[in-house]
Design goal:
Chain A has helices at residues 17-25, 47-52, 62-66, 73-78, 82-85, 95-109, 125-138, 155-170, 182-188, 211-218, 231-234, and strands at 6-10, 35-37, 40-42, 55-58, 143-147, 174-179, 191-196, 199-205. By secondary structure, chain A is an alpha/beta fold. Chain B is an all-alpha fold. Classes of the chains: A alpha/beta, B mainly alpha.
């Protein structure tokens, strides 16, 4: 994957997309495989290792894994970088600095919340997702793994999140975009990897691919050009 | 969620137990002879110190969604060792360090069992409690040991200005714990772990380490509680921890009904500790037979928690 690229990872439910993402991030243990960043082989066994290497993971289950429900927007956004950015001596939190930074992120991301102190569980799905993204923006990540980021989010929220992703890519971040909604993959991604039954079965550049071809591979097809058609039967 | 305006209903829901506490104080002041005197109030505060300090330790653990009952044995063990060593002529400084080491050891053991071996914290800590109780029995052979060394007793029975030292310790620890909880990285992690450990782990924080440190810190607080308790009484009573076992739990859970509806918190725990001893003192002042006091206490507690929980529609429980 190149910097500035949006790499789509599609497949039907159960194809193993999320598992790949979680393994890259170190959230679940992996059996085999290496991860190479900027030509160097890196060892990622826990989320911490991944974060140290600039990888961010926006999980599919944002309430379950991405957010601390009854903590404020501020605490959620700063959670991953408290140590790095906001801690003085004796791990004392510099709350003024934290508040200020979080406020700018709320503004830039367009998070609709009455205040930075609002508990995230009371925000809408789209705004919650923005909080999760804000958390990783703040930690200066270079590689973002979005696992079905628009699941259960209304149209306006989806659009905001697409915009965010494109902006990130323009700024040079590498993005892995996991989804099973083909239209959004087709319009967003530069390159698409199709997974079926736990394996990557096909790599497609966006320019040439049609919706039908993508769907063909997602459903487990092997060879689009040489596929059998039912036309003859009807003739 | 409404922000800002506090309605009468919110007040009762969130501070029900606090209101009950204030009511109880007012009522006792009128009907219980000698209740509202400086000396009696000071007594209540001094009595609640060891309970309060242990309850702070438990509050820390409850905050991150675990439980630690090891204090039920540790308090007694620390007391027995302290009293025994002073009696055998060791210096109080040396005895203090030994007690600290025991508390540390107990905390470490619980931490290893829960974090390292992944045992459920309830079972693991009850096991540690039994081990400590057994060790206590072995050490003092079931005999109450009195402490007569005045330099040892002065650690607890002296005053700073007009304030008895135990009260000073209690409030000092309260301030320290509260600051750690609200102002430091660790404090925020502890609460976040209690809410959603997965999210914290995926934010790159070592959840295991946070839990480990909290169990160790709790062990030290429990040990200190036992230390104060022993010196306050001036003797190591057999199974002193058993006495406090449920009181400490009650103080913490009463605390969850006092402030921050349903969540363990330090101000609530402090009030909870005072509440329990206020009831005891008030009923004793009324001339209630000693065996009737627990019954009266029980009813008041039910009332206090019911006011806030039932009005809230559901009883929010700390899960572990």
């Amino acid at each position: 994957m190149k910097s500035g690229e949006i790499l789509g990872l599609v497949g039907s439910i159960g194809a193993g997309k999320s598992e790949v993402a979680r393994a890259i991030f170190g959230a679940d243990p992996k059996k085999t495989g290496n991860i190479t960043i900027s030509g160097k082989k890196v060892k990622i066994e826990t989320p911490q290792d991944a974060i140290d290497h600039g990888i961010a993971f926006i999980p599919e289950d944002r309430r379950g894994e991405g957010l601390v429900g009854n903590h404020s927007v501020r605490k959620n956004v700063s959670l991953a970088v408290l140590k790095k950015k906001f801690c003085g001596r004796f791990s004392w939190i510099q709350q003024n600095k934290e508040r200020e930074v979080v406020r700018t992120y709320i503004k830039n991301l367009g998070i609709a919340t009455p205040s930075a102190e609002q508990e995230v569980q009371f925000l809408s799905g789209g705004n919650q997702q923005k909080v999760v993204i804000g958390k990783w923006l703040l930690s200066d990540s270079e590689i973002y793994i979005f696992d079905e980021p628009t699941k259960g989010i209304d149209v306006g929220g989806k659009y905001d999140i697409y915009k965010l992703i494109v902006n990130l890519a323009r700024k040079g971040a590498g993005i892995i975009f996991i989804s099973n909604e083909l239209p959004e993959v087709l319009s967003l991604c530069d390159r698409i990897l199709v997974m079926f039954d736990g394996k990557i079965v096909k790599e497609l550049p966006r320019a040439a691919v049609t919706r039908e071809e993508l769907l063909f591979y997602v459903m487990g097809g092997r060879n689009y050009e040489g596929r059998k058609t039912n036309k003859k039967r009807f003739n | 969620m409404k922000v800002g305006k506090l309605t009468k209903k919110d007040l009762i829901n969130n501070y029900g137990a606090l209101l009950a506490f204030i009511t109880v104080i007012i009522v006792f002041s009128f009907i219980s002879r000698g209740f509202f005197s400086g000396m009696n109030l000071e007594n209540i505060l001094v009595q609640s110190t060891s309970l309060g300090i242990c309850a702070f330790g438990l509050t820390l653990v409850l905050m991150m969604g675990e439980i630690d009952l090891s204090y039920g044995g540790l308090i007694g063990l620390v007391g027995a060792v302290l009293a025994g060593m002073v009696k055998d002529g060791h210096s109080i400084t040396f005895a203090t360090f030994v007690c600290l080491a025991i508390a540390l050891g107990s905390g470490l053991l619980t931490a290893i069992l829960v974090v390292g071996l992944k045992l459920p914290s309830f079972l693991a800590s009850v096991a540690v409690m039994f081990i400590c109780m057994g060790a206590e029995r072995v050490y003092n052979q079931g005999i109450t040991t009195w402490i007569r060394d005045t330099s040892a007793l002065s650690i607890v029975q002296a005053h700073i200005g007009p304030v008895p030292l135990p009260i000073f310790y209690l409030f000092l620890l309260f301030v320290v714990c509260s600051l750690i909880q609200t102002q430091t990285r660790m404090g925020q992690y502890i609460r976040a772990v209690g809410e959603n450990a997965d999210a914290v782990r995926e934010a790159g924080i070592k959840v295991g380490l946070v839990k480990f440190l909290v169990f160790v810190a709790a062990g030290i607080l429990f040990g200190f509680g036992g230390y104060i308790e022993t010196l306050r009484i001036g003797a190591a009573v057999m199974y002193a921890g058993k006495q406090l076992l449920l009181f400490v739990l009650a103080a913490c859970f009463l605390g969850t009904a006092t402030f921050k509806a349903g969540k363990a918190n330090f101000p609530g725990t402090l009030i909870g500790a005072f509440f329990l001893y206020t009831l005891m003192s008030g009923f004793t002042g009324l001339g209630l037979k000693f065996y009737l006091v627990p019954i009266a206490q029980g009813f008041i507690l039910i009332l206090a928690v019911a006011i806030s929980s039932v009005r809230r529609g559901k009883i929010e429980q700390v899960q572990f």
